[in-house]
Amino acid sequence: MEKRIAVMSIIVENPDSAQKLNEILHEKGEFIIGRMGIPYREKGISVISIVIDAPQDVISALSGKIGNLSGVNVKTAYSNVISHE
To answer: How many domains are there within the chain?
Structure first.
């Protein structure tokens, strides 16, 4: 199985979506290397970065689920490093 390392940048503009976002991330916790969240209270948003080491299809599916949440934007940057496990 080929795995890639990626960074997901997530901006949460709708606080009502935060709980569902956390549930989705928890489901894929085995692949998440690290997570950093910064609340930007002055603007009423949260900025989250997720580092993930997973198969391409898992990363794509996770990004798609997150992107479908109301008021949540996600972009994913992929490393060129591919591991075979």
So the answer is: 1
- Would the pTM count as exceeding 0.85? yes
What are the residues facing 41 on neighbouring strands?
none
CB-count exposure of residue 52 (10 Å: 0-12, 13-18, 19+): buried
Convert the pLDDT of each residue in 4-36 to its tens digit. Answer: 999 999 999 999 999 999 999 999 999 999 999
CA separation for the pair 35, 57 (Å, rounded): 20
Task: Give CA–CA dist 60/32, Å, rounded.
Answer: 14
| CATH classification of the domain holding 69 | 3.30.70.1150
